[in-house]
Amino acid sequence: MKHPISVLLIILLSSSLLIADESQFMKDLVKAFPDMVQFQKYANDYCSLTPYFRCDYERNKIRSIHFYHVESLSGKLPDSISTLDSLETLTIISCPVEMELDFVNSLENLKEITLENVKIKGPVPRFNKNTKLRYLSISHNNLEGRVPTFSENTELEYIDVSSNKLEGYIPTFFYNTALISVNFSNNLFVDNMPNFERNTQLVKLDLSNNRLEGYIPSFNKTTQLKHLDLSNNSFIGNIPTLTNNLALRNLCLSSNNFEGYMPLFDKHIELMHINLSNNSFTGNMPSLSGNVKLIKIDFSNNKLYGFMPLFDKHIELKYLHLSNNSFVGNIPNFVKNIKLSVLDLSNNYLEGHTPSFSRNTQLEHLDLSGNSFIGRVPSLNSNTILKNLDLSNNKYSGHIPRFDNNVMLSALDLSDNKLIGNIPSFDKNTELKYIYLSNNKLSGKVPSFGKNMELIKIDLSNNILDGDSPNFGKHTQLTYLNLLNNSIAGEVLIYNRNVELIKLNKYLEPILKNVNSPVKKEILNNVLGYSYSKLLSTLFPEDELVEGKKESFIPPYMRNS
To answer: Which member of 140, 142, 269, 305 lies 3.0 to 4.6 Å from 163 by CB, making a disulfide possible if both were Cys?
Structure first.
């Protein structure tokens, strides 16, 4: 054997070079992140840092890096990471580390890149040298500019660039036939969406919350598709046929400019969530009797008309939103929908008596406002976890029932009906924050609301209430009080620095203490009937009454369930 010493030197030199990159990287880590004491302790034994590194132990080469929610990882990622030529997996999630993505092209063995919610800025680089890349997630960062094509990444299965500031066109994935999941949501992408006909293995596609427009292409060949979300864009026209996408479970096309009739979904037996809200669909609501696995249906804010269908086969149904359409007739019985949590049928042309909800013990949000329901306010004693109830703008009559069993009730709106009698006590409803009973024929004294210390807004205006006003001096959360057009007399004590608007009668003396309030001068002069200077004299000397805008008291709680 020739030159045995030379051969031995070459072997030894090669062996030392194998770990030289890792050693330098660890030295740089110690300098970059001095608060990471583990790096200092295991700088020469980095393969023992199993939460963070996984190694090829025979060669002492780092194969994967994992940092999850490490607050001490604050600073710039060392450039020497680009020398880890055996690195296959790089995962950094929710760490305050700063980096640029140019280094990834030096790591040709990378198969998985997850850099989510870290401090990455600048453009998305080409990953043309990462030909083994299968998984790429760079979501929730500050990336800008256009997204390159991924034509060299033919093994790519998963890509997520959501929640950045990316713009331009969404690239085509003509050569990425292995793709399973694509998420480009919450960016600034424009123009038409690409065609995914060649991506026959696609299971999830999310392009929501962008600026895409035009018509939606066909999905006839993506037969494995289970999740499709194109919401909050500007797509137009009809929804293309989805008859070949029978694996669909989640379909969200809300907040676009779709029109025409809704397609039939009777063969999509796996469908669990469907949201076509905020479009211009017209016609009758399609029958969903075959979609027995449905959990959520949202067809609100369209132009649908006719009678509501039955939902007696949907025993899994939890969320039903059909508001702001033109449905007519009586509403169906929901006795079979025992899991129902949210029911919003507001702003239609529904009428008749309200059915019983005694079987819907999971009901939390009920909104039947803006219809023509008659009879008494339904008893909801069985709905013990009810939080929000809106029956306003109907034709309910009779007395207001007590809500003693609804101990979690947070918002109650019975305004604009024909209710009579006294306002009941709400002593059991200690979570109550909003109460609206205006525009009825309620009489008697205003209850004390002594146990409702969380109240934020009260509107009892336009009734025939009388007697002395209750003392609101302990309601420190109260920001809105409207007692206009009643016969209530006496002093009204408000003790809240954040009070925004009060409307009283000329019989009431406003006593505002500790107020730092954007109450309008014009409102005080014209509505209260008191001069601005007289009101100021009731304030503590150090307080000021400042200008501000009138805040709407339409309850927000039922608008975005």
So the answer is: 140
